[in-house]
Amino acid sequence: MNVIEVNKLTKYYGKSRGIVDVSFGVEEGEIFGFIGPNGAGKSTTIRLLLSLIHPTSGDARVFGKDIAKEGPTIREQIGYLPSEVFYYDDMKVIDLLKYSASFYPCDCEERTRELASLMELELNRRIRDLSYGNRKKVGIVQGLLHSPKLVLLDEPTAGLDPLMQRKFFDLIRDENKKGVTVFFSSHILSEVQRLCNRVGIIREGRMVEVSDIRTLQQNNTKKIRVNTRYGQPAFDLPGVTNVVTENGTTQLFFRGDINLILRYLTTLNVDDVSIEEPTLEEIFMHYYE
Amino acid sequence: MSTNIYRYEVRVRWKSVLIWTFALASLLFIFMALFPSFSAEAAAMNEMVANFPPALKSAFGISNLDLSSVLGYFSFCMVFCQLCFAIQASNYGFGLVSVEENEMTADFLLTKPVSRSNVLRSKILAALTSLLATDVLFWLMSYASIVLFREGKPYELKILLLLLGSVVVFQLFFFFVALAISQLVRRVRSVTPYSLGLAFGAYVLNAFAGIFGDVKLEYLTPFKHFDTAAIVLDGHYNLPLVLLEVGVIILALGFTWLRYARRDIPTSV
Fold it and tell me: In this structure, is residue B229 part of a structural domain?
């Protein structure tokens, strides 16, 4: 059964576009990555699923229930971590977590302590006095303390140091092993690659592709920059696109078996070469031309 | 109703309730403490007031006021208390749901398993509790100040109760109208300018209505609907105006109810 089933969901803010005709499904127990540049409509989609905003047209079901009709019941099983975390500043961390827990039928105290010690969160400090990263940790604990069956993460790693990021990913993986479905939105491709089984790519409000992460990796595009001393290499190979030469530096995108291009490069008299991951923007520009 | 939201909301406001009550009580006591000297010089006082320009008198609502009687004087003080009540109630109304959107905590509250109407209901009840707490304290203070400073002069209990009771509907008007306005704007960035605008706007409207006489602006403002001087003079409320006010309250509540359920919560950007 699909935990999330989105059907031609469209949202306009007045005249400006949020998302247009977005359809996809998230299966139970998977980690679904949702990637796209800023302003593509990632947050809009998540906020629609949470009924923070209401769709212009189309519909969506979570746990098989209509979001427009059964929002409160659905939200009982959802944990949400927004990209920017704001809480009642005057509260102590522990009071906020207790307030949060009071909305759910469970006895969440033990889980709260467990998560707080895992994320190294000090419970007796005032929210006002917390740094950005620490607020984020409050958000993480707050989003998971009621043991939700579906976790919605909206660019969750911003503001976390690398060590905390790793802990956070481990935590999400553990939750996932317990059967929790994770919907993970991000604009950082590597993050999504590390964690997700399937990804949806959204661009300018439209879902351009939903695919298995492996398929995406096989189609993986590399950005290659070559400095040559003499002449201009032709790069007449299948999979090579967007060749631009400037001041002896040739830049191109290559998609296919990496050995092919490596073999070709060895035939050249190369000064310098770099092979790197294209940025997400470049993938979008390149991938969907 | 969600008791946890209700409890949280009441707790958030209790400091503000205490401060407002303290302000109201100080205002009332300072004014009423002057009553003995006023009433001692009653004849001279009334004569002086009679010599004020009529425009000034009507602006302050003292055209037909007997400052030498206990309730005449008290009703004069109450206009200023009304102004405080108007600001407080507007504050609560404007801030009730907009404060969550302003400080981005709406994302926290509205992603919990509660419906919008439940959130609104709990918040409204909590704010009304705070307003009522202010009222009760204000009533006690009023009674105490009258007992303390009336100098043995008589007053009619029924009219005092009418004056004190009027405060409730008066508050509801400002609270619900402010709440409805907060639903019309995309974001209330700061509550104070809005609430001062609404409260003083309504006050000034009444003052001008007094000056221009013929222009019927006064039907718009609760300061006229519950004109304290008129209540003392007539011995009853102006029923059509009070009903008009109740009508506006119900409309504002209904509007908010429908609007908030469909409202898009703006993001931080």
Answer: yes
